[in-house]
Specification:
This protein is an alpha+beta fold. Strands 3-11-4 form a three-stranded antiparallel beta sheet. It is globular, with a radius of gyration of 24 Å. It contains 17 helices and eleven strands. The chain folds into two domains: 167 residues, 3-Layer(aba) Sandwich (D-Maltodextrin-Binding Protein, domain 2); 127 residues, D-Maltodextrin-Binding Protein, domain 2 (3-Layer(aba) Sandwich). 37% of the residues are buried. It starts with a helix and ends with a helix.
């Protein structure tokens, strides 16, 4: 009789008390993508899942296409912290339809951002430069170093995916007719260097760039407004295509950047999935972190530790109180 009562008491205790996260989590694999923001997020996830939820978390090398294919076809890894949805749109949709994938939330709450930019110090001096009309009206400010009688527009490096869209928008905006030359910076480093040189000397600059990036974390830039709004159909059907004959003006659409998991992880680890749904960075936050990574030549692990130590005000909002206490204790021990 005592045994029956004891067993009943144990069963009742289990039924009325929540199961701890570490008893549910187990082994978790996380794709460590080969670019800085994704590697930072992957390392933040590993630390929080290990220290806060008791998971056996492991990072494995990843890249957008092979990781997504593997998740859809082989159900591994469990988590891809930063997937740019437009780059694997059909794969993601197939994975969702076949009940192989789940979307946790947005890795970047603002989404990936592209545009034509000028330095903020120019807009502070002349607010009209925030618009394409203002830029065109002041073409003589943006002197082409190779041809001072023309203005300079720094485009996306040749061979990059953004080259097509930026050149089509250059045509749509009739920037050549306005007096601008389209300059190929030669490389990503060349494009970044042109911004850095202009900023150091407080000189005019006008060109294409994207966020989140270390450059926009270091140098405050203002995105030029075209006054057109965003026409996604025009962008997809013409601006983004090399055979776009008659491009029309449109702002770049925001790229959806999400955290994707396999469906079985979402089902067996609801608490951890809830964390991933809340874990998100603004572009301003990520720009700043990427700038810190570049300045300190830091890898994803080092950057994650810096973020966790210096930005508790951000990550504490992603976690339940009990989990946050565990993570804070682990951070204090770093």
């Amino acid at each position: 009789m005592k045994s029956i009562i004891l067993i009943s008491g144990l069963l009742l205790s289990t039924a009325t008390h929540p199961v701890f996260a570490e008893e549910q989590c187990g082994k978790v694999t996380i794709a460590d993508m080969n670019w800085s923001s994704a590697s930072l997020i992957a390392n933040v996830d590993r630390f929080i899942l290990e220290k806060g939820y008791g998971c056996d978390a492991e990072l494995i090398p990843g890249d957008t296409m092979p990781t997504t294919i593997s998740m859809v076809e082989k159900s591994e890894p469990d988590i891809a912290p930063e997937i740019w949805r437009n780059n694997v749109k059909e794969l993601i949709e197939r994975g969702l339809k076949d009940n192989r994938l789940a979307i946790a939330g947005k890795s970047l709450s603002d989404g990936g951002e592209e545009g034509f930019w000028v330095p903020q110090y120019m807009v502070d001096k002349d607010p009209s430069l925030k618009t394409i009309k203002g830029v065109i009206a002041n073409v003589k400010l943006f002197k082409n170093p190779e041809n001072p009688d023309r203005g300079a527009f720094y485009g996306c490096p040749a061979g990059w995916g953004c080259q097509i869209a930026s050149e089509n928008l250059f045509r749509a905006l009739k920037l050549s007719d306005a007096g601008f030359n389209l300059i190929d910076p030669g490389s990503g480093a060349g494009l970044a260097g042109s911004i850095a040189r202009a900023y150091t000397r407080k000189k005019p600059w006008f060109g294409y760039y994207w966020a989140p990036t270390a450059i926009l974390g270091k140098y405050k830039m203002s995105k030029v407004e075209f006054g057109s709004g965003t026409n996604i159909e025009e962008y997809q059907n013409c601006i983004a295509k090399p055979d776009c004959v008659d491009p029309k003006v449109t702002m770049f659409p925001t790229a959806l950047v999400q955290t994707v998991t396999i469906k079985s992880f979402a089902e067996k680890s609801p608490l951890e999935f809830e964390y991933l749904a809340k874990r998100s960075f603004t572009n301003a936050q990520m720009n700043s972190l990427l700038a810190w990574m570049e300045d300190n030549q830091a890898d994803g692990k080092t950057a994650a530790e810096y973020f966790l130590m210096d930005h508790e005000d951000i990550w504490i909002n992603w976690l339940p109180t009990d989990v946050a206490k565990k993570v804070k204790s682990a951070v204090n021990a770093l």
